[in-house]
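Notes taken during the Thursday session

The instructor put the following on the board and asked us to keep it in front of us for the whole hour. The protein is D-serine/D-alanine/glycine transporter. We were told not to look anything up and to reason only from what is written here. First, the residues (477 in total):
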Amino acid sequence: MTMVHHSDEASSPDHLQRKLNNRHLQMIAIGGAIGTGLFMGSGKTISLAGPSILVIYMLIGGMFFFLMRALGELLLANLHYKSFVDMAYDLIGPGAGYYIGWTYWLGWVLVGIADLSAVINYLSFWLPEGTSFSPMQQAMISAGCVLFVLGLNLLTVKLFGEVEFWFALIKILAIIGLIGVGGYMILTHFQAPHGQVVSVSNVWSHGGLFPKGVSGFLAGFQIAVFAFIGVELIGTTAAETKDPEKNLPKAINAIPIRIILFYVLALFVVMSVTPWDHIRADKSPFVELFLNAGIPVSAIIMNLVVLSSVMSSMNSGVFSTSRMLFGLSKDGQAPSALGRLSKRAVPSNGLIFSCIFIMGGAVLQYFVPNTMEAFTLASSLCVILFISVWLLIMACYLRYRKLSPELHAKSTFKMPGGVLMAYVVIAFFLFTLVILALEPDTLKALYVSPLWLVVLGVSYYVFYKPRMKKLVQETFD
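Then, after some discussion, the predicted structure tokens were revealed:
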């Protein structure tokens, strides 16, 4: 297996610095696991799938655990890998590196755009009943959010780690608080304003666990998968993580516990308090739970929490896109300007470049003022792109197992199930793509997504390959 060499000298302004410690990495991983898809998207997912959403989250979460174990083994097998770009470039080829890097970049840009829709949705909580933001107001709010996140990321990577630490901590405490309040309501048989007595039986007494049958169960996958986008984020922090051999396994192995706590248990409590058929698709069920509890102050606090969650997601997205561009640039797959670091060792040009495109979300808010429609469109597109990235990560794992059996034998962090489990994960994600074709909302995104392949293909053969050919000729001349 070829070694991808990038110097780790912290003093060099040309290289990323290892400033993220275990505390930061754990919270980045948690922050990635708790995002807009959970807080905003779960309302729509519950309305589509009912209580079967719990099964969906456990199933997807299990697949992601194996995906992350494969990624962890790959990153630790070769610490010269800074991200998926290096990994795909080395194990599959330059075309794969080019695709995974730019696709991951676009995926997070789309996440940022979806997050802007969520911000508008949450801020609408503060408006008088029956009123909404004008398209221009939505666009201005969106632009302000992007500029705020850009400002945070232009400072230092350690500040990014600190901000994500506190964002993630807020989310954790909020979900624990929600579980606590909901648990109290369950134990005391609290009667909600809609007249329903709070009980765990509410989860299955409104049509069973699969009230909408197989079609409803499958319909819940798109936004549920979107909720997991970001779990793989720690794969982009490898170059800036202290002691990765110790800290990466810790972060990855905690994923199942997080899924059970933050997704399954939290949504079980939500549906115990508010029967699934009373949950509105366009509202956050987390905020609604406190309103149903008759605790408006807590509902206000939770609304602020979900707002911070969206900003956390956008913050992570901007961070990861800039690191992808940095890696692509160093491999000659993006303009060299995007690989330049500021005095603070931050890829500032990449940050600005990414934020310019996320600003497209402000334009979307103007032309598609329906926030849920804009959210669904952006999230559907990015789910398709991310699935292709996850599939390539698994393909990298299979190539690694074939090309470097000695590294696998020496690995102290082997993927459970090995090659067989890798094929199971691949089959699952391919199945998820098929499911997306069943829903009209996501089918639109499937129709549009091949355009990205065309753009990448043209740019690869028109710009990248001639550039590489020229560099090779100059090397041998």
